[in-house]
Amino acid sequence: MAPSICAICEVVRALIIRPKNHQKLCKACFIAIFEAEIHHTITTTSLFSPGDRIAIGASGGKDSTVLASVLKTLNERHNYGLDLVLLSIDEGIKGYRDDSLETVKRNAVQYDMPLKIVGYDELYGWTMDQVVEVIGKKGNCTYCGVFRRQALDRGAKMLGINHVVTGHNADDVAETILMNLLRGDLPRLARSTSIMTGDESSEVRRSKPLKYAYEKEIVLYAHHKKLDYFTTECLYSPEAFRGSARSLIKNLERVRPSAILDLVRSGEDMARLVPEAVTGISQCKIQKVSLSSADDEDTSGCGTNGRSGGGEMADMEKKLQADEDAVGREVDVTAKTSSDNDGLHTDAVLLKLGKKTGPKTKMVKKLTRQTLGTCRVCGYMSSQEICKACTLLEGLNKNRPKMEIEIDIKDEESSIPRIKMEGVVQAGG
Amino acid sequence: MGSIETSAPTCIKCKENASTLQIRSDNICQSCFCQYVTTKAVKRMETYKTRGSTKIAKKMLFPLSFGSSSACLLHILDQHITSQYKRMNRAAFELHVVHVDLYLDAVDRKGSAELLEKYKTRFPRHTYSSIGLEEALSLDTIDWSSLGLLYPPDVESEKPAIERLQHLIAAMPSATSKADILTTLLTRLLVSVAKKNDCEATIFGDSTTRLAEKTLTETAKGRGFSLPWQVSDGISTYGVAFNYPLRDLLKKELVTFSSMISPPLTKFIIRQEPSSHISASSKQTTIDDLMAQYFESVEENFPSIVANVVRTTSKLQPLTWEETNSCGLCGLPVSEGTDGIFGWGGDQNSDSRVNREHGEQGILCYGCSRSVNG
Question: Which of A194, B176, B335, B355 has the fewest Cβ atoms within 10 angstroms?
Fold first, then answer.
């Protein structure tokens, strides 16, 4: 076969098949179009104004490294007039974060940008290593994600910056849309699709300039620009198999390359179809789901981990079944209850009977209107009265002194915090 | 059901018979299982109860695909109508059963005609008809010029319709696009059949699993905007209501049901090949295939998640645009000022655009535009 010529410049031999639309391009044209598209996103959404100070949430991974590199390039090329700063979070994971932070430190030199590193220990009094000691290796990604989101806000505030950009790409957005459909979480689906969260009045705005950029193109760009980034997966990801939604997206992309973009478009359109007062999320679901899902943007930086693993789906399934049972019980109370102790039940039935489903039924119909306010405890942005980070911290801190006596005193079960209970359930499932 | 072990738990519903089946995680006997399936479906038809002195039965279009779900639903509704007649000598609704031939091959068509005869013999109470998908080409509700094809199917009308349909499908850029346009044509054809026969609603046999599958398929095809019209009961922009009485039942439950009832429906059902062998690297694989495969596995382990997807999607509300255009192909409302796959945030570079060689196009929605333009 004769070598293909680049579809754009029609001069140079094509070396790259563009993942987004399978266009054959030369290296220079690919880099140019990748940058031009991000410039297009930034200008059409009026993401920045001249003189803005912008913190780039930098993990040392490919997405944030490409974001930093592209923003620097575009800022100089198109005179955005931005003051760019790298902002990194030190979760306190030995052997992982200390290495990736080295990458960020090199990036700071390479891109000539100031770097601020904020540690979980100074913000929350807990490093991730310590959290894992308590929570175990499963389910800790939730903590990490929730803590990180707020850590970026706090870090930005320390720097006097009110706009944080993150490296979320089109694959991440598409994945969030699918995940929230599977979770049945319309409010979060609606919020996750917009390029910007918060507005001029918010203390810290967040945006994702790579929202329409394919992950594969980000990798290609990083490769061809020879960017210095860090690829090792987080240590605390024993369930690092690709989440259900993520592997589905990869397959969809193979069958129809536009699928990722089409998913993003669907999400944007569906966000407008979500009724203003979104109904039907029971109180118990809110607690569960919001705990397990970190936040709108999920746990960027952990790559594929922790958000859509089988464990989470299994938990959700249990939760939903319990709700269904509770509803069913209310409807036909007469159907059962008698002759329950004839010893013929399977474990599953016994287990279910043991669950207290009664009080949940009443809350099923509760309306949940989500508005952005501030956390009563720490004062940071939150849609709940007490933000997720503080809720999680409360559990952790309660847990700290109790750890040792737990094994001895069995009948204190009821007073063991929920979070600990969840850990047990997850480890079992 | 073969011999029942003495240790088999008692049915959780009737507390008498030994259980042989499970609904979600409850052990249940065969007769209670059939009761459960029937009740779930009939309950959904309560909207069409006879009220007061209305003696005239409402006409419903019933598309029959020969799959497990529509076969089960026909059985259930047939029994329901029969018992209504027995009780009060009238029924709330009557069914016009239609089978749309998606296969263009004469041999396949003969086979489906014979199968439809079997249905007529088993459920003789209803009106039956069958129609080939190529009939959709003569629908005046579709703006064929909007497709921007060199040879729109309505122009070369001297050629046989089947051949023109084949040309149209062949002109689509991918397997997913082909499947997508076939689905769209099917829907539009059914609506026109419903209207011609004065049916006030169309009763679809989609199970929970199928509706969840559809939700994610349409989302992945860029048709998120259309979901309120695709999975909700009652809402339709076409002037004919769509209803999904099996929306609370899983696919696997219906498959079981079809073999439980007596005589079983097994011989009336054309089973689809299990989707487990579908590979994402095949050129023939569609997004629809991938989603079917995905939900087959989710249904197995996480049935409540499947149901939750459908419940959630049903909460989406259709947009009410002040001024709306309709998509030339699927007919759904398109918001003012949009241009198919072009002219939105994700359309970032005019160099990447597909050339539109065939002059001015009409209005297409994002999903149809994607299918036509690739």
Answer: B355
